[in-house]
Amino acid sequence: MADPAPSLPLNIPDKPILATAQVIDLAEVAARRAEKFGALIDTLEAGVSKRAADAAESLARAGFDPKDQTAARDKAAAVARREVVANSSDARWAHLKELSAAADSLATTAQLWANPVTVLSRSGLGTPERTAYMQQLEGSGVVELRNMAAFAVASGNKVLGAALVSVVDRMPARSRPFSAQDLADRLVGEETRKVQDAIAAVKLAAQRAIVRNREWEAGKVRPLDRVKLALNTTKE
């Protein structure tokens, strides 16, 4: 008996699907949370700097050499940073978890908004309108299909566009009267890019906060993290 054909796993993240407005709202919320986290780090850094400056000033008033003042400042800063890092851990990670959760919640949405064709293809799924369009388009010639595509764009009819994409997708590539990508871009391209930009903004806000936190804990810049962040910012 022949071995059964292996089944191909579906790459379906177990996250909820968010609508356009929800994704854009989430991006705005993430931006505010990232800003709030940045303000927290600024406050913590100001506290460390104050303790370091106080230590140097104390030695200055006592008449110590500038070299000793610098050493005292650096030592006080190191001690203060260790203490503040430990004491602020819960507060900082609460912010980071919120941002990471926001980014993680977009897994399914990102997959379903990967490109305009994917978005257009699900317009009107299961509706009588799409079914009727499919029946009417079956057997249509190249000229008729091209004309219907022009009508779909002119009227903004996404359901008709989805039916057209479904029909031409079954045709040989060289026989297709129009580009499904071009039709989808004209009908849902702008909306798709808005959602993609919002998703990227949420992920970037989380990444920026993580990098800021790592640098603050270490008390120094992390060049590799900054390069990765810059690359992702450019992609956005």
What does this structure look like?
With 236 residues, this protein is an all-alpha fold. The chain folds into two domains: 123 residues; 77 residues, no CATH class. The protein contains ten helices and no strands. It starts with 19 loop residues before the first helix and ends with a helix. The N terminus is likely disordered.
Share of residues in strands: under 5%
- How would you classify the quaternary structure? single chain
Order of helices and strands: HHHHHHHHHH
Helix content: over 70%
Main beta-sheet annotation: none
Average predicted confidence as pLDDT? 89
Shape assignment: rod-shaped
Query: How many helix segments?
Result: 10
Radius of gyration over C-alpha positions, nearest whole angstrom = 28 Å
Which structural class do the helices and strands define? mainly alpha
Number of domains: 2
- State the total count of DSSP E strands: 0
